[in-house]
From TrEMBL:
Keywords for the protein's UniProt record, in alphabetical order: Lipoprotein, Signal
Residue numbers spanned by region Disordered: 30-62
PANTHER family (alphabetical): BLR0621 PROTEIN
Species assigned in the record: Streptomyces cyaneogriseus subsp. noncyanogenus
Keyword Glycoprotein: no
The protein, known as: Lipoprotein
Length: 258
C-alpha cells in the first residue's frame, strides 16, 4: 500500500536555505554531515539505527551479508529484515555500489535488487563526520521516512511530497542538480525519526549536520549523501517495507569488511 502522503504544514516553513544545506547542494553551500559508524546501541532521535537484538538470533544471520565483517554486522539490529548495503570503492573515493538485501527464513541474506552504481561524498568516508567535511558516514542507520518533489511512486514508507524539495545549481563537477530531490529516503542520522526528510531538528547539534539522504544521482559526488539513478530509487522506494525495519549499512569496502 502507498505510504502516507505529504504533511504540507510540516514543510511549509522550510526555507530555500535548508535545501541548500543538504548534501547535494553546490560545493560552497556548506553541506550536511553524518554520524560515526560505531555499532549502534540506542534509538535516540539522532538516528542511531536500532538496538542490538536478542542473543537468540541465529548466528548465520550475521555471517551472510556479502563483504560485511563482524564489527559492522554487530551494529545491524536483529529486528532488521532489510539492509541497503552501500559499499564504497575506497576510503577517499566518491563512488560506490548499492544493493538491497532481505533476511531469509533460514536467517541468512539474499539480494532482492541488482547491484546499482552510486555516488557518495566527494572525499569518501569517515567514522566521525562533521559539517562540511565532504565525507559520508560509515555505519548502520535506520530508514523510516521518504519524500520528494514528485508524487509518491508507491512506497510503504511515510512519504512527504513538497515543492520544498526543489534544488538548483551545479555540483562539484559542474553537473546540474535539478531533479536530485525528486525522490529521497532519509537516513536516520541526527534527525527525528517519523518526520519529513525536510524536518530541521538536529538532536545532536547543528555542528553534527543532518539532512543525509539517499537521493537521485546527479552524475557527480555528493556532500555526504548516497545517490543512485532515479529508476533505481523508485524500485527502492517500492521495495522498502517499514514492517521489515530496514536499515542502511554504508562505508568503504575495507572498513565494512572488518
Amino acid at each position: 500500500m502507498p505510504g502516507r502522503r505529504a504533511r504540507h504544514g510540516t514543510v511549509a516553513a522550510v526555507s530555500a536555505a535548508l535545501l541548500l544545506s543538504a548534501c547535494a547542494a553546490a560545493p560552497d553551500d556548506g553541506g550536511v554531515t553524518a554520524r560515526s559508524g560505531a555499532p549502534v546501541k540506542s534509538t535516540t532521535a539522532a538516528g542511531r539505527a536500532a538496538l542490538p537484538g536478542s542473543a537468540g538470533e541465529p548466528k548465520r544471520a550475521r555471517q551472510a551479508l556479502p563483504g560485511v565483517g563482524p564489527a559492522m554486522l554487530a551494529g545491524i539490529p536483529d529486528t532488521a529484515r532489510q539492509v541497503l548495503l552501500v559499499t564504497g570503492d575506497g576510503r577517499n573515493e566518491p563512488t560506490s555500489t548499492v544493493r538491497l538485501y532481505q533476511r531469509t527464513k533460514a536467517g541468512g541474506w539474499e539480494a532482492v535488487t541488482d547491484a546499482w552504481p552510486a555516488h557518495n561524498a566527494l572525499k569518501g568516508w569517515t567514522h566521525d563526520h562533521r559539517l562540511g567535511d565532504l565525507r559520508s558516514p560509515i555505519g548502520v542507520f535506520a530508514l523510516t521516512d521518504a519524500g520528494g518533489l514528485l508524487p509518491d511512486p508507491g512506497t510503504r514508507l511515510p512519504y512527504d511530497r513538497s515543492d520544498a524539495f526543489t534544488v538548483s545549481g551545479t555540483g562539484f563537477e559542474g553537473e546540474p542538480l535539478d531533479g536530485s530531490f525528486d525522490y529521497v529516503v532519509a537516513i536516520n542520522y541526527n534527525r527525528e525519526p517519523g518526520t519529513s526528510p525536510l524536518d530541521w531538528a538536529r538532536p545532536d547539534g547543528a555542528e553534527k549536520g543532518g539532512g543525509i539522504w539517499v537521493h537521485v544521482d546527479h552524475d557527480g559526488p555528493t556532500q555526504a549523501c548516497v545517490s543512485i539513478a532515479e529508476e533505481h530509487l523508485k524500485i527502492l522506494l517500492r521495495t522498502l517495507d517499514p514492517a521489515l525495519k530496514p536499515v542502511i549499512v554504508m562505508g568503504d569496502a575495507a572498513t565494512l569488511a572488518r
